[in-house]
Amino acid sequence: xxxxxxxxxxxxxxxxxxxxxxxxxxxxxxxxxxxxxxxxxxxxxxxxxxxxxxxxxxxxxxxxxxxxxxxxxxxxxxxxxxxxxxxxxxxxxxxxxxxxxxxxxxxxxxxxxxxxxxxxxxxxxxx
Length: 127
Known about the structure:
The chain is mostly helical and 127 residues long.
């Protein structure tokens, strides 16, 4: 771990002072203002978050039903839970395949037309 320099220690003290409502040195005023702005912008947890977290701590962060947790790991569970997503992905793959197959003959014709009109310098000079 890097050593804390006197400058870093001074800046950390300024952050603590600003958050505690105490005066901050003039050259560190912007740092103090930033600390206050960030504190005001932090998200607030929902009212049920604290009790839910306490319950998880009491359980040792283990799932209530170990069998339910293991069943959720199977790939087909996720597939069955979101059939619209799987169906949409399959439909998109079919559409892309059809577009590629249908567009392939025209791609060759365009390439022939573009290359057919060009002549090299040797062909024009008659050599």
